[in-house]
Write a structure and sequence with these properties.
Elements: E1 5-7, H1 14-24, H2 35-39, H3 47-60, E2 74-81, E3 84-92, H4 98-104, E4 107-111, H5 120-134, E5 139-145, H6 149-157, E6 161-166, E7 181-187
Antiparallel strand pairs: 1-2, 2-3, 3-4, 5-7, 6-7
The protein binds coenzyme A.
Residues 30, 109-111, 116-122, 144, 148-151, 153-154, 157 line the site of coenzyme A.
């Protein structure tokens, strides 16, 4: 029984998001799309910048919004419990560049370290699949590194069918991929 819920990003979670940030120890958090903040020169420790980032994430879910160069429109869904931010999932609306086609896929997700191991990633991925269905997408590519057993099990539990495991040699060198990527498709 999952006692969390899925919700659109909200500035009201700033304090808890910062606690989560400290747990991760990096802005490079799968699913959170924190890199978007850098594209707008936003410091996510600042409350008003955080609110601007949240607003951009809302805008990016609309396909008539033009995101920064090289970024896909995406829906962002947060996993929360009461006032606590627990994780995030990003649903890219298209595989609009080589990075997404080869490595990133349609969906990325991450659960803060203290909340892992309780089914939240599966809960989040299922929510993203529901959103994808509502957007009319027919199938999604979900990927993970070969060594990421938890992520592979998450994808398989949500119906992922393994298409291939691509060795790093097949990727363009500047993607920085150092291990094989497991590529799964989920029919919607
Ligand atoms: C991968 C990640 C999202 C999993 O989140 P989680 O909430 O702990 O996952 P869940 O509790 O929903 O478990 C999902 C599946 O993984 C398995 N699992 C979870 N942690 C595991 C671990 N450390 N080792 C092996 N399997 C694990 C669970 O048993 C479950 O499988 P099952 O359905 O067969 O029982 C989380 O570890 C994380 O955020 N990691 C860093 C970011 C990341 O790797 N994101 C994915 C990028 S592709």
């Amino acid at each position: 029984m999952i006692d969390a819920k899925l919700t659109p990003p909200s500035a009201s979670f700033h304090a808890s998001w910062l606690e989560s940030y400290d747990e991760w120890g990096t802005l490079d958090q799968d699913g959170a799309a924190a890199f978007v903040a850098a594209r707008y020169d936003l410091d996510l420790r600042d409350a008003s910048h955080f609110a601007q980032w949240v607003n951009v994430l809302h805008q990016m879910a609309k396909d008539d919004f033009q995101p920064p160069e090289g970024l896909a429109n995406q829906s962002t869904i947060w996993v929360v419990r009461d006032n606590a931010y627990l994780g995030a999932v990003s649903l890219r609306h298209s595989l609009m560049n080589e990075y997404l086609t080869e490595v990133g896929g349609h969906i990325g997700y991450g659960i803060r370290p203290s909340a892992r191991g309780h089914g939240l990633a599966k809960f989040a991925l299922k929510g993203a699949l529901e959103e994808a269905r509502e957007l009319g997408m027919e199938r999604v590519l979900v990927t993970c590194k070969q060594s990421n057993v938890a992520s592979a099990r998450t994808i398989e539990s949500c119906g992922g069918i393994l298409e291939s495991v691509r060795p790093p040699e097949s990727f363009v060198a500047d993607l920085g991929v150092t291990e094989p990527i497991r590529r799964y498709w989920i029919d919607l």
